[in-house]
């Protein structure tokens, strides 16, 4: 018998959720054939079969949370005398289920009930808002058909049906807030199942709240580690069944700060005449918009933010783009834009001024020997910052393809959590909207963000003569706690030099 266990998931990742099983008990498997897929808060991990044989037992079902090296399943060897045992057991179980179904049909019962759960939402995301239900109680659906859509403070998450069946009861209505791992609805695998009476909702509410009173549940590994490091014992958990999550410990650690003088409360809204109030519309802020507001304000309150400016003559970059854009698109299948020029110029400058590519972690400075470039993108839902990993090692074509792909996903609301995490520096292009000058706000925990602006013909003095050139203002906002004025100015000058003479990028000057 060969055991299938959870592989190493990566640095600081201690648990994962079983997303999909590609094999069922009794199925034959070849060595290295994919058995299942795990989802962590950062990546999706495929688990291959360690040996050829027959999948005899699945220990961790879909939707379960498992730790590193936990037992997932077991495999009977191909030459084992009893490879057919799982199949026989499966046939017996099928027979038992068939008998149970016959009994249920004799007594008017329905198929097995299943819970529709909130999926893993991503790193540091513990709750979501139910945005839209695509199915109503009583409606049938196929396996993997979308049942509802959740909105977190970063992305929208679609919830597929775990199996074919009928939606019997919705537990979380549209607009309600749900926690990761919580119940969304109840479904039945019997297509003839009827929706549960609405009155049951009242009976279930107390039971749901009382289930979280017990503390005989395993706290999140990251939470236990933080509590041990900070000598915390009594932390109120907000996870499923009262489970203590990392966010709960962070809130408890910040609790002493509550004794500090509280900031002045926001001024009350001025009275509005009745006839004017009738013409107003109140709309609840989306989770994404609330998070944008909170993060930007936190950034201002935390970092010693300062902005320095420069301007760049875009003549050479524009001429180079015009000369090669047709050949570039023909060969690489993507248009040559200015973002690749700026990305390359920033990567070049960050090598010389590494503190702009660093971040503060407590009393330490973490220098990044790579560049994960965040490209701010405006969407109908709000501002998002998809990240291009290892942009410093990519070509112009690879950068343009990555920007195009991430931009499409951002507009369609299809960006994953992993695609918006891990950025070390950000570029924000307000020029596409006509902005001539602005001071971008840092994207914490990053220490620098470059603001691009509109290219505008302006008179400039060159060699004692006034000429008209396509000019752009550049703005670098930086955290003055680790970036000095000299470093910030040097960074902007290096970006300016690279854009005004793109050949410097080839020469690494």
TrEMBL record:
The keyword Transferase applies. Its EC number is 2.3.1.61. E2 component of the 2-oxoglutarate dehydrogenase (OGDH) complex which catalyzes the second step in the conversion of 2-oxoglutarate to succinyl-CoA and CO(2). Its cofactor is (R)-lipoate. It comes from Salibaculum griseiflavum. Pathway: Amino-acid degradation; L-lysine degradation via saccharopine pathway; glutaryl-CoA from L-lysine: step 6/6. GO terms for cellular component: cytosol; oxoglutarate dehydrogenase complex. This is Dihydrolipoyllysine-residue succinyltransferase component of 2-oxoglutarate dehydrogenase complex. PANTHER family: DIHYDROLIPOYLLYSINE-RESIDUE SUCCINYLTRANSFERASE COMPONENT OF 2-OXOGLUTARATE DEHYDROGENASE COMPLEX, MITOCHONDRIAL (PTHR43416:SF5), DIHYDROLIPOYLLYSINE-RESIDUE SUCCINYLTRANSFERASE COMPONENT OF 2-OXOGLUTARATE DEHYDROGENASE COMPLEX, MITOCHONDRIAL-RELATED (PTHR43416). Residues 77-114, 191-241 are annotated as: Disordered. Residues 1-76, 113-188 form the Lipoyl-binding domain. The lineage of its organism: Bacteria, Pseudomonadati, Pseudomonadota, Alphaproteobacteria, Rhodobacterales. Keywords: Acyltransferase, Lipoyl, Transferase, Tricarboxylic acid cycle. Residues 85-106, 215-228 have a biased composition (Basic and acidic residues).
